[in-house]
Write a structure and sequence with these properties.
By secondary structure, this protein is an alpha/beta fold. Helices cover 41% and strands 15% of the residues. The protein is globular and about 65 Å long.
Length: 425
């Protein structure tokens, strides 16, 4: 089992190499037949969150897939969250330490000074960590975190960048992300063609570094035959005949949860069926205003309290999907390639999403779901009504979506491709 080190604010004066419950490199090598197995490699991962949203889930699946006979995993996360215990169960060592993350708030005089200071202290920390733990490869799980890439370049270590963002504005942020990933990486895996093309346009001399690699979900977990949707419905008091519309994801300025809310009265005014609307998710720490705004929007719409449910983050997402009739992700800005959409398709749900970014590579319009215009409550309401009033269409799209998720978005293929890259590096 893995262990956890917590670094308060990054003000550590020393770093202990030996962690309870984790074999050292020498001990691990002594226990193996070196004539049969290649030398163990230590991978240092860095992640921008510690929850269980899309990027967190993909990282967890990757760590779980690594053979303990070949790989030793160390993961840096910025705060304690549900991801930490799951990584430890997978045998990883987890270090809780905040790193500077490129956000819009950085671009103020104070923000730039703070970012520069955190970059320098974070770099010193990672350099010492890589040396003390004899890290072989660094793997950054977000384009907004730069310290590991710079450290890898300083120490001439291989660095893989997994890009799960598609930021268009402000332009300076988009350009900075693209240039940094191109400069400080050996390989950049992008979770959709939309992301790949977005980063390539600012790296014309490094096109070969950027490769589309679709991720997926664990289909043994996202399996309609195993999910317990009836338990979820019973806990909410929702009858079997009611139609449940589900949204799950971060609450943020661009995810479109306000569009989801403002479409509800438009739907209820045009159908006589019992329709319930469920919203799952939380905000990034420090961005709680988005959830407050959503709750205020719902209050202002004067919606029936038995029709709208805000239930926060839920660990058993497949059960909630199984309790629903279709899934909605009305993002205002381009999605890179939302893991939650792939999970919904794997669970046999028709999906509604905006026709921008990587969503158009996930949802086949008219086949596995419906594509709508961004920021349009009217478009969303019309698409929802189409699925509400047509159970045969829901069934057909749900079946096609599951087939597409199994055929195109394979977590096994994703993990195998990344491990092959580790071997080559």
């Amino acid at each position: 089992m893995g262990g956890t080190i917590r670094i308060e604010g990054g003000r550590d004066s020393s770093f202990q190499c030996d962690i309870v419950g984790k074999l050292t490199r020498t001990e691990a090598l002594k226990r193996r037949d070196l004539t049969m197995v290649s030398p163990m490699r230590t991978i240092l991962f860095a992640n921008v969150g510690a929850d269980m949203y899309g990027a967190d889930y993909v990282l967890l699946c990757l760590v779980r897939s690594l053979s303990p006979e070949k790989f030793q995993s160390i993961v840096i996360v910025p705060y304690s969250g549900p991801l930490v215990s799951e990584l430890e169960k997978a045998g990883a060592t987890v270090i809780v330490r905040e790193f500077p993350v490129l956000r819009r708030s950085v671009f103020t005089p104070i923000g730039i000074l703070r970012f520069g200071w955190q970059m320098s202290t974070g770099l010193v920390f990672v350099l010492r960590l890589v040396r003390s733990r004899r890290v072989d490869i660094l793997h950054t799980n977000t384009a907004s975190l730069w310290v590991p890439g710079i450290a890898a370049r300083c120490l001439k270590k291989p660095h893989i960048w997994q890009v799960m963002e598609l930021v268009e504005r402000p332009r300076i942020v988009a350009l900075a992300m693209a240039k940094m990933t191109g400069l400080f990486s050996n390989k950049v895996f992008c979770i959709s063609d939309a992301v790949r093309d977005h980063f390539r346009k600012d790296n014309p001399r490094r096109l070969q570094k950027f490769q589309t690699l679709y991720h997926g979900v664990d289909t043994s977990e996202y399996d309609p035959a195993k999910a317990r949707g009836q338990i979820v419905r019973a806990s909410l008091g929702i009858p079997d005949e009611a139609i449940v519309v589900l949204y799950a994801g971060r609450f943020s300025a661009w995810k479109g949860q306000d569009i989801f809310a403002t479409a509800i009265p438009l739907v209820l005014a045009k159908t006589k069926k019992d329709v319930r609307f469920v919203m799952l998710g939380t905000c990034f720490p420090g961005q709680e205003e988005f959830e407050l705004q959503l709750r205020e929007t719902i209050r202002a719409l004067n919606l029936p309290p038995d029709r709208v449910y805000l239930k926060g983050f839920q660990n058993n997402l497949p059960d909630w999907m199984n309790a629903s009739n279709f899934f909605v992700l009305p993002s205002k800005n381009p999605e890179p390639n939302a893991t939650v959409l792939i999970g919904a398709m794997a669970m046999g749900l028709p999906c509604i999403g905006t026709r921008i970014g990587g969503t158009v590579e996930s949802i086949i319009d008219g086949e596995t779901g419906i594509q709508i215009s961004p920021s349009s409550s009217q478009d969303l309401a019309e698409a929802e009504l189409q699925l509400i009033e047509n159970p045969e269409l829901r069934l057909r799209m749900g079946r096609a979506g599951r087939e597409r998720a199994l055929a195109t978005f394979s977590m096994t293929h994703y993990c195998d491709t990344v491990q092959n890259a580790y071997d080559r590096l």
